[in-house]
Specification:
Porin; single chain; 2 helices; mainly beta; three-stranded mixed beta sheet
């Protein structure tokens, strides 16, 4: 059952690359797998998600927008015992647009919509006292920005919050990560535990009411992206075959976005979640020959509570995924993957009022990645 280091490295690359559709605003899963690759390594990838979130009760055919997000990483083995790395991803986000002709979520030809975007740059330094152990840590630079428009009867109509807009200007802040990994390369065994801190933002905010007629600029809104723990594991189970697993916890249960003037008008948060997120992915990867390998996986996400905000009315998911990798030479590869998500039914809520049920939701995720060893 022994695997040489080349086989181990190639098989490691078959871990799922397709995007997550997770609890809260979670998107990328914040993997550091690229930093744990042997030797010098670089990769670039893109993931696309095509969700369908609907409500027969509220006559909403689909309110979830397609979105894509890139990722990139470089890792350098500077000395026998020291490695450095730089990872880029977009860990959190939202992209939703309701139909403007639905009076529950639309008014005056305008629709309820949300766009939240984040960017993360993680710098890591690792110390390997032996071939088996790797201890790493580093700072994380993060930006957050967002815009939200509320329209329609779900928010009380134009006389209340059904004509509300908010612009959260981009803010930058810093956090940190730390972790350790243990490996036995000869049998492709590797396990890693990574902690990421919460990151606190204070975003310059403009709120408007009455379709922009009443402006409330120059406020600050606090947004704290959650702390998290990722546990990654893989081991060889047969010749050229890996089993792998990932477990993730994210601290969403105290997350809330509370704009000053919206809260004063309604006593409510714009977005909040009631539960922490737990997610897991398990699967197998196999090297078929010197050029081709593949993987299959099953995933679960708990969601972050139910009822949930109307801006993202699903609760967790189950998923299945397939990935394939072509390696023209030992030092580089091209990888593609696809996942199907069964999104959990959820009750959409505004403030303390349940608006309606969203059921029979699903999504397709696609990913493409190029990796190079130098």
């Amino acid at each position: 059952m022994k695997l040489n280091k080349i086989y181990s490295a190639i098989l490691l690359s078959t871990l799922p690359l397709t995007p997550a559709l997770a609890a809260g605003l979670d998107r990328s899963g914040q993997s550091i797998a690229a930093f744990l690759q042997p030797g010098n390594y670089a990769e670039a990838g893109i993931s696309v998600l095509d969700p369908k979130v609907q409500s027969n009760q509220l006559k909403v055919n689909d309110m979830a927008e397609d979105y894509y997000f890139p990722s990139a990483a470089i890792k350098v083995q500077a000395t026998e015992h020291i490695s450095i790395g730089l990872l880029y991803d977009q860990p959190f986000g939202a992209e939703s647009l309701y139909p403007s002709n639905n009076p529950v979520f639309g008014a005056n030809g305008e629709a309820t919509q949300v766009e939240v975007e984040t960017h993360n740059l993680s710098a890591l330094i690792g110390y390997q006292p032996t071939e088996n152990w790797n201890f790493y840590a580093g700072p994380v630079y993060q930006t957050v920005q967002g815009t939200v428009s509320l329209r329609g009867l779900a928010y009380g109509g134009a006389s209340k919050l059904g004509s509300y807009d908010i612009n959260l200007k981009e803010d930058e802040a810093y956090g940190w990560l730390a972790g350790f990994a243990y490996q036995i390369p000869e049998i492709a065994l590797k396990t890693a535990v990574t902690y990421r801190s919460e990151i606190k933002h204070e975003l310059d905010t403009t709120e408007t009411f009455g379709f922009g007629a009443i402006q409330r600029p120059n406020a600050l809104t606090e947004v704290v992206t959650p702390q998290s723990v990722n546990i990654d594991f893989q081991t060889g189970v047969a010749a050229n075959t890996l089993a792998f697993a990932n477990i993730r916890w994210a601290h969403w249960d105290q997350f809330a976005v509370t704009p000053k003037f919206l809260n004063a008008a309604s006593g409510n948060n714009l977005i909040d979640y009631s539960d922490d997120q737990w997610s897991a992915t398990v699967g197998v990867g196999r090297k078929f020959n010197s050029h081709w390998s593949g993987s299959a996986s099953v995933g679960y996400d708990s969601g972050a509570g139910n009822p949930v905000t109307t801006l993202g009315p699903t609760e967790g998911y189950w998923s299945v995924g397939l990935g394939g990798q072509y390696s023209p030479a030992e030092n580089y590869f091209i990888q593609a993957g696809v996942k199907y998500f069964w999104l959990g039914d959820a009750t959409a809520r505004t403030g303390t009022t349940n608006v309606g049920e969203f059921e029979d939701n699903y999504a397709l995720g696609y990913g493409l990645k190029i990796g190079y060893r130098f």
